[in-house]
């Protein structure tokens, strides 16, 4: 009988990936990925288009099987326990989820569906679920939208609802896959302030933010994983893993990392091979 992941091992890391390799046909999508997310850490994954970020997320959530290597969540390894239990420990917010939300579904029901890791949920809501969902919507600053249908919500509101939805299952890891895409500059700042508030919450799950934009790395993010062509080129505490040198190697273009008022930025230096100028 397969072991249940419902009772997490107290000392295990939140996530551990070792020797992960993913091949499809002749293509090596991920190669020799070894990565560990410990309790209390919040990570950013950065890298150019096609470097393997989405594939890595899909391997973490059990949606694709690696060619070799292991992925474990809270000490439980895919293949050795029920993957549905493991998946419940990982919340994921991605724009691809948006197409699966029924257009007429009120926000509060979208949030409640997260508790059961289901979309288009057809059950009678309990009072306790409604209370919990409303609390999360209020935390996300959108309590007033609880009864508004998905169809009429803005992109920023939808992203907050999907985060509240993910939190309904009390995940230990929350993956935010390009959560700012489609947001205008002001909406993006408000949204980042919300992420920062979430990260400072006592019961916050470990966050993994996937982005192309260093400006979206808020001060709560502690660690970085930098990818290039399916391989890790740097990982560790933000200050050492995310530098002009590692970004230049990742994006194959000369880049300088700037820091102003606690926010990161990029400058293209205009020198060297593959300069954008
Ligand atoms: N099933 C597959 N078969 C063949 N190649 C694939 C498959 N899935 C992904 N790839 C390739 O693997 C590479 C990594 O894709 P992936 O979507 O993980 O990149 P990404 O870093 O998320 O890119 P982006 O930033 O553009 O979203 C790409 O070159 C892609 O074409």
TrEMBL record:
Residue stretches making up the ABC transporter domain: 15-254
Gene Ontology terms: cellular component: plasma membrane
Main location: membrane
Classification via CDD domains: ABC_DR_subfamily_A
Listed InterPro entries: AAA+_ATPase (IPR003593), ABC_transporter-like_ATP-bd (IPR003439), ABC_transporter-like_CS (IPR017871), MetN_ABC_transporter-like (IPR050086), P-loop_NTPase (IPR027417)
UniProt keyword terms in alphabetical order: ATP-binding, Cell membrane, Membrane, Nucleotide-binding, Transport
Any single Pfam family the record assigns to this protein: ABC_tran
Membrane topology: Peripheral membrane protein
Top-rank taxon: Bacteria
Subcellular location: Cell membrane
GO molecular function, one term: ATP binding
Similarity comment text for this entry: Belongs to the ABC transporter superfamily.
Name of the protein: ABC transporter
Source organism: Ereboglobus luteus
């Amino acid at each position: 009988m397969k072991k249940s992941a419902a009772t997490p091992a107290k000392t295990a890391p939140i996530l551990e990936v070792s020797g992960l390799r993913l091949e499809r046909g002749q293509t090596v999508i991920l190669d020799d990925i070894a990565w560990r997310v410990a309790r209390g850490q919040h990570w950013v994954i950065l890298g150019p288009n096609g470097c393997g970020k989405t594939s890595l997320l899909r391997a973490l959530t059990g949606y694709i099987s690696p060619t070799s290597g292991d992925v474990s969540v809270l000490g439980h390894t895919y293949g050795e326990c029920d993957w549905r239990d493991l998946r419940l420990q990982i919340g994921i917010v991605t724009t691809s989820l948006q197409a699966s939300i029924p257009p007429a579904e009120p926000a509060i029901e979208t949030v409640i569906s997260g508790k059961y890791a289901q979309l288009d949920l057809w059950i009678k809501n309990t009072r306790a679920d409604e209370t919990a969902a409303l609390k999360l919507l209020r935390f996300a600053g959108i309590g007033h939208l609880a009864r508004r249908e998905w169809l009429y919500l803005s992109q920023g509101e939808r992203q907050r609802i999907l985060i509240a939805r993910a939190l309904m299952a009390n995940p230990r890891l929350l993956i935010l896959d390009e959560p700012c895409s489609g947001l205008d500059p002001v909406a993006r700042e408000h949204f980042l302030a919300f992420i920062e508030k979430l990260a400072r919450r006592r019961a916050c799950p470990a966050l993994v933010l996937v982005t192309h934009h260093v400006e979206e790395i808020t001060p709560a993010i502690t660690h970085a994983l930098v990818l290039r062509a399916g391989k890790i080129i740097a990982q560790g505490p933000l200050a050492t893993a995310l530098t002009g040198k590692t970004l230049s190697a990742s994006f194959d273009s000369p880049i300088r990392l700037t820091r102003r008022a606690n926010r990161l930025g990029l400058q293209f230096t205009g020198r060297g091979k593959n300069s954008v100028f």
